[in-house]
Design a protein that fits this description.
By secondary structure, the protein is α/β, with parallel strands linked by helices. It contains 13 helices and eleven strands. It has an eight-stranded mixed sheet, sandwiched between helices. A three-stranded mixed sheet has the order 3-2-4, with no helix packed on it. β9 and β10 form a beta hairpin. α1 runs antiparallel to α2 and α2 packs across α6. The model has no long low-confidence stretch (mean pLDDT 95).
């Protein structure tokens, strides 16, 4: 392949960042793409990774590595433009910010190279809102049952603690009032009536087990892994950073285990329980699973669904026909799957489709 493919990936990711209120990254990536084409320091750092698919992975890995330097105080000139480090960014700063970024990349090539070998993992806490919506729907259909959470592609397992988060919308609230994780403005437009009813009927959940898997799990209690989770958040998204900080605090209080296992193999070891609601949950991870493995995942979910025990499959993934549309879908046992909501890719807000 060529530098051109990497540059095209950066430009594509720049467009995505612009659409998701990340103008700092959008402006940096446009300039980074030109730097790659010119054989500059960005080209040097990504050498050997130019043929990665045009899906933003190389861009996000590079940006994550640089962000980690900013967050740890190793790039003070660049930190002036990063809101996550107390700085501020305006489009008029684009050239000066790029100069600081390019200088940082030039001086930290050896530090940044390892970031290109690790997948971006944000463990997006806002998506827990969709898990809770699906959970409450399942409880509303099946009745008051203890819950076992099973998350595929769990990253650091932060959303396995979703029942300890506080969800808020206009005239609606669910979860502990003293939670360090608050998910405000969770709904655009009216909260569905069935959700209000379920939240009123089940103000608390009894979660008896929390299981997760990920090919490359992170440990929220490990400082290096916690830094990685923070670094992959986009620096202008300070509300996301605040949610992550709360989730990391909660993770220190309530440890859970995430197995370093692929999804299909992990599910093969999960058996249903007759008096417990087993919830298989995943969010924005399906595109990273090879097609043959996903067929095995589907077969395992079908096995659980057909067991006769209480089982719900809750997914928040891009639509099949329209990948720009992120959808919450729930299937209870062998019943037909139901589309419950559309939502922002980071989970907040959701709305009735």
């Amino acid at each position: 392949m060529s530098r051109e493919q990497a540059a095209a990936a950066m430009e594509q990711q720049a467009g995505a960042c612009a659409q998701l209120a990340a103008g700092l990254y959008a402006d940096l990536l446009v300039r980074a793409a030109a730097d790659v084409r010119a054989g500059g320091p960005c080209a040097t750092v990504i050498q050997g990774y130019e043929d990665a698919p045009v899906d933003g992975a190389v861009s996000l890995r590079l940006l994550g590595g640089v962000h980690a330097l900013v967050l740890t105080g190793a790039a003070p000139e660049l930190a002036r433009y990063y809101p996550s480090a107390g700085g501020a960014y305006h489009p008029r700063d684009a050239d000066a910010c790029w100069t600081a970024f390019r200088d940082t990349v030039t001086g930290a090539s050896d530090t940044l190279r390892p970031w290109l070998r690790r997948p971006p993992q944000t463990n997006e806490v806002g998506r827990a809102h969709l898990l809770l919506t699906g959970l409450l729907y399942a409880l509303g259909e099946l009745g008051d049952l203890p819950v076992r959470l099973v998350e595929l592609g769990a990253s650091g397992g932060l959303n396995l603690r979703a029942d300890r988060f506080r969800v808020e919308a206009d005239g609606f609230a669910w979860g502990p009032v003293d939670s360090p994780v608050r998910l405000p403005d969770a709904w655009r437009g009216p909260v569905p009536g069935w959700l209000r009813d379920a939240a009123g009927a089940y103000p608390e959940m009894t979660v008896v087990e929390r299981l997760g898997c990920d090919p490359d799990p992170l440990d929220p209690g490990d400082p290096a892994d916690a830094l990685a989770l923070r670094a992959y958040l986009w620096p202008e998204h300070t509300a996301r950073a605040a949610r992550l900080a709360g989730a990391l605090e909660l993770a220190r209080r309530r440890p859970v285990r995430v197995d370093a296992t692929r999804a299909a193999d992990f599910l093969a070891g999960v058996d249903p329980r007759p008096d417990t609601l087993t919830v298989v949950w995943h969010s924005v991870m399906r595109q990273y699973v090879p097609a043959d493995e996903w067929r095995r995942v589907t077969a395992e979910i079908d096995r659980l669904a057909g067991s006769g025990a209480p089982v719900a499959h809750v997914s928040f993934e891009p639509g099949v026909a329209d990948k720009s549309r992120f959808q919450l879908r729930v299937r209870i046992g062998n019943r037909p799957e139901r589309l419950l909501a559309d939502a922002h890719p980071h989970g907040l807000p959701a709305w009735v489709p």
